[in-house]
Amino acid sequence: MGSTITVRGLHKSYESLKAVDGVSFDVEAGEFFGILGPNGAGKTTTLEIVEGLRKPDAGAVELFGESPWPRNPALLPRIGVQLQASSFFERLTAREQIHTFASLYGVGAKKADEMLELVGLTDKADVRAEKLSGGQMQRLSIACALVHDPELVFLDEPTAALDPQARRNLWDLLRAINTQGRTIVLTTHYMDEAEILCDRVAIMDHGRILQSGSPAELVRGLDTPTRISIETGAIAVDEARRLFQGAEVDDDGVSLTLVTRTPAPVLAALAERNALRGLSVRGATLEDVFLNLTGREYRA
Amino acid sequence: MSSGFRSLSRAMLLGFVRDRTALFFTILFPLMFLVLFGGLLKNQGVSRSKVIEVGPVAVIDQVPADAKRELGKLLDVTKMTDRAKALDAVRKGDYEAAVEQQGDRVMVHYSAADQVRAGTVRSVFDQLVQQTNLAAAGTPPRLSLDAQQVEDKSLKTIQFVTPGLLGWAIATGATFGAAMTLVTWREKKILRRLRLSPVRISSVVSARVGVSVGVALLQTAIFLGVASLPSFGLKLSNYWWMSLPVILVGTFAFLSIGLVAGAWAKTQESANVIAQLVVLPMAFLSGSFFPLDSAPKWLQAVAEIFPLRHLNQAMLDVMVRGKGPASVLPEMGILAGFAIVLTLLATRLFRWDDV
């Protein structure tokens, strides 16, 4: 049995714009896969082609070994798609929404109510969808995507516009779903989210995948120096310069920051002098990888 | 019946019932017109002219009892003895005319202020005098006055406005229902969500059709119910039930208009405007608010392109004119043809997504 998703050489152009320009990747069963990229990078178009909403100009997609285009009814019950938060029937309550979606898949009301319980919306069941908060809407929309127990779940920027609490709660939910053995494909432009959730990410820009791999691998591959910060005054600036010849030393009056490629001896020396007050050590993050790959100019 | 069809119908129906604006415009608003037209204009058909009888006027007084009743439908006769006062009252416009008889001369004094009524009064007395003359000439003294409205004798106001306004209500409900569902579901990505679920497209379409037909039948029940109340006095003919299949194909025709509007429009606002631009002029030109009988011929010809014109005609025929069921088959054919053509057009314009 092959991969859950196989994508080979996708191309899609809108007039002169090459939205997707030669994208290939695989997603294995049970994987949590992230597609990252700035706005307009081609993430959504790629996702839509993979889901079977659009026909690629060239290239092939297989989900569970079958093509999603043209609309493939045999495949649809096996995938769950969460769209934007507002994709609800008008003037229906949360419970009516999920019951409606459940019945489209032949799933009963009991299962739908359990799903509502799982995302913590039982007490909001009789509230109309448009009256829910942003986080509640997202949870409802994910519940609607999962109500039929799909093996493969697509999430398009599920935490956009959520407050930090709602984001964390949603992450817990998504991890729980992934742990049940479901394959998840997610697009996001929150790097911390991708770093925490995803087994593997692909960073896209201008319709191409620039790099893919596990977040840790990508960060390590960046080979950036480590930033060590301590409270100003924990050690004199001159002494720091003298001690750590290879490091960049900077004091802004609040923190003294050392930028080094060999953090271990620096930390040991600081510890020896009991100068670890207010210590923070920061390596590169996925965000650094992302900015390094995509540049810093503004996007659409 | 698939569970998709049932749950989507339910979702649409709940969405409609909870939408106060839609409920108002598809049910309450047309009903208000029915009450207005049916109630306020109740006596407009044969309005009585107020006439003063100055002194004894034999042509009035000698009319037999049954003819007098007919005459009473046309004239509201007040007796007065003072001639000057009577003429003054006519001049002021309180009465349409004053009548006096001196021997063989019947004199009608009228005011030219309301020429239509003056004409009515004159012609009534003209007839009275002639018939009296005939009687005097030896023909059997049978004075009979047949007072009839000239337009269409079978159609009292309520008989006419009920089918017309009902047609307008159905057109509004079906056109807006289809257009709004299509645009809103596309805007909110529900269409896309449905496309990614295993529901059959035919279930989605038939749910919309089913709900619209249900709404149309509900409108029909409410309208006929209200209009049949004693204070309005609608009298349905024997073949009124034939209006149900007529309404069914009519609903299809308006749904197809809504589908085209919804497929064409990009936003809810523009769909709203397009549907309104179609429905309102169509309602006027189809005789929903007033009869087209007196409209220019070319306008009547133009009106033939509107499905509502044919729905109204067909409903009038079977609901109140008492024509047989077969008489509306051509109308139904036109409505069905209209629905088919526009539905084909809508499928060509149809888009799942905005882009």
From TrEMBL, chain A:
Location within or outside the cell: Cell membrane
Main location: membrane
Keyword set, alphabetical order: Antibiotic resistance, ATP-binding, Nucleotide-binding, Transport
Domain ABC transporter: 5-231
Membrane topology summary: Peripheral membrane protein
Record bears the keyword ATP-binding: yes
SUPFAM superfamilies: P-loop containing nucleoside triphosphate hydrolases
Pfam families recorded: ABC_tran (PF00005)
Family annotation (InterPro entries): AAA+_ATPase (IPR003593), ABC_transporter-like_ATP-bd (IPR003439), ABC_transporter-like_CS (IPR017871), ABC_transporter_ATP-binding (IPR050763), P-loop_NTPase (IPR027417)
Homology family: Belongs to the ABC transporter superfamily.
Protein name: ABC transporter ATP-binding protein
